């Protein structure tokens, strides 16, 4: 009432002045919030999809499991395990998709973007051309690829070689001999592959770039799945190279069917075989779309731990993981064993014996039985028993709640692997640290890991 009386006594001019001041304060606060969020987005990158084992190696040396919607700083590294895959956005137009068993460090400073791949392989995509003054490079031990507005796959092969496949656009490639510093340059176009080699001990021509044309049938399985997962990328790649969209989709479908058939064949035991064949992992369908939620909110714990002894948990609550994609091996035909010939015995007629006069035998004295000593059985030592298994952690399935930019809350179901044990339950402090950026989470189930 006092405030109402105060404003009532103000003149019209004073009311206008106070209104302008109030609007200015509100505008300054909004601008500060926008600038703060823009500064965070400018300095950080984010993991928009993570399946299987994905870890973040921070600059100070700490390593932790991560899920999607996790932001990280320049200088941090992302690692995927044998069952892991991840999609990282450096900003709205620069994206890297990791295959399994890969590692890369991310550098972001002003308008300079750099990915240093040290293991495995990744598919890169630049959906918009670089702005004036921007640079985007991907480096391996030998190769530096200058990305201008394109997509492709860069990787280490099993023999330690390094190669780059351009799926659309152009890439400037520099190969450097780390020992001599000699460099070779080449411009690689869509539908081409370049491989870098070095020759230790040579003074000249110690590094070479081998360029060859590729078709959609030459692409690794991981690249086919990544392209087929994004319709816009699929159309752009096919238009750039004259490739067939239908051929790529058929290749992906055949790859998945072949893996499924291999799994089924491996699961059926053949009595004539000494051992069953090992199963080939089936590629999982890639998830479409990305989530742009920022990671700035500390989670509030609402975990309700279910009975860990219940082995019949609801599997429907677990998010379908996205697999790491590996090349499907071509099954080797087993040699057909040559049947052994069955031998049919032919009876031979026995000759008729000529009767011989029977001689009268002299009776032989019966020998006295010799006493045989009975051996005393030695005591059998008990077989050693295996040590009791030790609980080392849990694989945890959770329901997480995140806050979108428009203020709405969304709910997802995720899994975190290798969570340390705290007694007989997962470590809540570890989950709190791993789930920063979500406003709350609920533990749906957890499976113990024993060593």
Describe this structure in words.
With 451 residues, this protein is α+β, with helices and mostly antiparallel strands. Among the domains are: 35-218, Jelly Rolls (Sandwich), CATH 2.60.120.1440; 300-314 and 389-450, no CATH class. The protein contains six helices and 23 strands. It has a nine-stranded antiparallel β-sheet with strand order 4-1-6-7-10-13-14-17-18. Strand 6 and strand 7 (94-98) form a beta hairpin. Helix 3 (221-228) crosses helix 5. The longest helix has 32 residues, at 12-43. The model is unreliable at 36-42 and 271-362 (pLDDT under 50).
- Rg calc: 35 Å
* CATH topology-level fold name of the domain at 35-218: Jelly Rolls
CATH class of the domain at 35-218: Mainly Beta
Major sheet details: 9 strands, antiparallel
Task: Return the structural class.
Answer: alpha+beta
Spatial separation of the terminal alpha carbons? 71 Å
Order of strands, widest sheet: 4-1-6-7-10-13-14-17-18
The CATH architecture of the domain at 35-218 can be given as: Sandwich
What general outline do the C-alpha atoms trace? globular
Percentage of residues assigned to helices: 10-25%
Mean pLDDT: 75
How large is the share of residues in beta strands? 25-35%
User: Would you report the number of β strands?
Assistant: 23
Enumerate the spans where pLDDT stays under 50 for 5 or more consecutive residues: 36-42, 271-362
Determine the number of helices (DSSP H or I, runs of at least 4 residues).
6
Order of helices and strands: HHEEEEEEEEEEEEEEEEEEHHHEEEEHE
């Amino acid at each position: 009432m006092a405030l109402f009386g105060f404003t009532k006594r103000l003149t019209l001019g004073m009311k206008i002045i106070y209104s302008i001041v109030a609007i200015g304060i509100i505008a300054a606060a909004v601008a500060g919030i926008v600038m703060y969020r823009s500064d965070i987005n400018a300095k950080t990158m984010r993991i928009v999809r993570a399946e299987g084992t994905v870890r973040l190696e921070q600059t100070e040396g700490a390593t932790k499991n991560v899920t999607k919607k996790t932001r990280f700083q320049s200088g941090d590294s992302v690692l995927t395990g044998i069952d892991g895959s991840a999609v990282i956005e450096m900003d709205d137009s620069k994206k890297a998709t990791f295959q399994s068993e890969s590692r890369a460090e991310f550098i972001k400073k002003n308008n300079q973007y750099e990915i240093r791949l040290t293991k495995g392989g990744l598919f890169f995509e630049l959906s918009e051309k670089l702005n004036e003054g921007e640079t985007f490079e991907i480096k391996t031990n030998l190769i530096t690829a200058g990305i201008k507005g394109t997509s492709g796959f860069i990787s280490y092969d099993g023999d330690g070689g390094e190669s780059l496949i351009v799926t659309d656009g152009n890439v400037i490639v520099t190969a450097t001999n780390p020992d001599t510093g000699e460099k070779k340059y080449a411009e690689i176009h869509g539908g081409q592959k370049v491989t870098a080699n070095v020759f230790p001990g040579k003074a000249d021509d110690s590094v070479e770039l081998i360029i060859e044309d590729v078709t959609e049938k030459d692409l690794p399985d991981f690249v086919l799945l990544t392209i087929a997962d994004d319709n816009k990328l699929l159309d752009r790649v096919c238009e750039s190279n004259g490739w067939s969209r239908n051929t790529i989709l058929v290749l992906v479908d055949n790859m998945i069917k072949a893996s499924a058939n291999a799994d089924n064949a491996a699961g059926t035991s053949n009595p004539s075989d000494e051992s069953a064949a090992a199963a080939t992992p089936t590629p999982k369908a890639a998830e479409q779309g990305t989530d742009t939620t920022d990671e700035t909110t500390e989670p509030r714990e609402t975990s309700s731990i279910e009975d860990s002894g219940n082995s019949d948990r609801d599997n429907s609550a677990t998010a379908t993981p996205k697999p790491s994609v590996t090349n499907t091996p071509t099954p080797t035909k087993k040699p057909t064993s040559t049947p052994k010939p069955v031998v049919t015995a032919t009876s031979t007629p026995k000759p008729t014996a000529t009767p011989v006069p029977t001689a009268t035998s002299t009776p032989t004295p019966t020998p006295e039985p010799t006493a045989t000593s009975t051996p005393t059985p030695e005591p059998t030592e008990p077989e050693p028993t295996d040590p009791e298994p030790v609980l080392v952690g849990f694989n945890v399935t959770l329901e997480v709640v995140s806050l979108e930019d428009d203020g709405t809350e969304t709910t997802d179901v995720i899994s975190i692997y290798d969570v340390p044990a705290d007694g007989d339950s997962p470590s809540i402090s570890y989950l709190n640290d791993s789930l920063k950026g979500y406003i709350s989470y609920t533990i749906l189930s957890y499976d113990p890991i024993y060593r």
